[in-house]
Write a structure and sequence with these properties.
The structure is a single chain. The protein is 36% helix and 15% strand. The longest helix has 21 residues, at 131-151. The protein has helices at 51-64, 75-81, 83-97, 131-151, 160-163, 169-178; strands at residues 12-18, 27-33, 67-73, 104-108, 120-123. A 5-stranded mixed beta sheet has the order 3-2-1-4-5, sandwiched between helices. The protein has 6 helices and 5 strands. The model is unreliable at 193-199 (pLDDT under 50). It has a domain at 12-150: 2-Layer Sandwich (Nucleotidyltransferase, domain 5), CATH 3.30.420. By secondary structure, it is an alpha/beta fold. A hairpin with an 8-residue loop joins strand 1 (12-18) and strand 2 (27-33).
């Protein structure tokens, strides 16, 4: 069972992102404030869960969280500001949308920029330790997967309904064959060092 808080007795928001390592599509982030005694035995780091479990957990989190929000930045913004800064800005945008202001922010990973006057803690692998961070990872992942599936028909040759924009062998082979789409991140190594970018 994951921990319900990092600092007891205050309102904490867990934050996480999804899509940071993708070659195409936006980066999504979520912020979640859970009830103090929230319990969901299947909740874990979204990467360790099946699609079916993630989708079920999304419904539970969206129904039972005291507050939750999802935000995203597209590939053009990622290219403009770099993926780290874009990931953190997406978390800030999600925090902006919360209907309850947290007193402390728990962030998955080791990098974050201060948000307003709210203290924060960066927790490496926090999505496998704290319920609110795991919940944020589930929302970010499920919302992003849904988005990538929705744009798949526009460029079905890349297989985004399966790889969700991650650098699979299938995805890289399609880029090599067809070039890049308007959704690809031009600042990423899309072809490796063997091919020039095709616009």
């Amino acid at each position: 069972m994951l921990k319900n808080f990092h600092i007891q007795g205050i309102r904490e928001a867990g934050c996480d992102e999804a899509g940071r390592g993708c070659l195409a599509g936006p980066v999504f982030a979520a912020a979640v404030v859970l009830p103090e005694h929230f319990k969901e035995p299947s909740l874990n780091d979204s990467k360790k869960l099946s699609t079916r479990i993630r989708d079920k957990l999304r419904l539970v989190i969206e129904r039972e969280a005291l507050a939750w929000a999802v935000a995203w930045l597209d590939n053009e913004k990622i290219d403009e500001m770099n993926i780290l800064r874009a990931s953190i800005l997406a978390m800030h945008l999600a925090l902006d949308k919360l209907t309850l202001k947290p007193e402390h922010i728990l962030v998955d990973g080791n990098r974050f920029y201060a948000y307003q006057d709210i203290p924060h803690s960066c927790i490496i692998k926090g999505d496998g330790l704290y319920a609110s961070v795991a919940a944020a990872s589930v929302l970010a992942k499920t919302w992003r997967d849904e988005y990538m599936t929705s744009i798949h028909p526009e460029f079905s040759e890349y297989g985004w309904n399966r790889n969700k924009g991650y650098p699979t062998r299938e995805h890289r082979a399609a880029i090599a064959k067809f070039g890049i789409s308007p959704y690809h991140r031009k600042s990423f190594s899309l072809f490796g060092n063997q091919h020039p970018l095709i616009f």
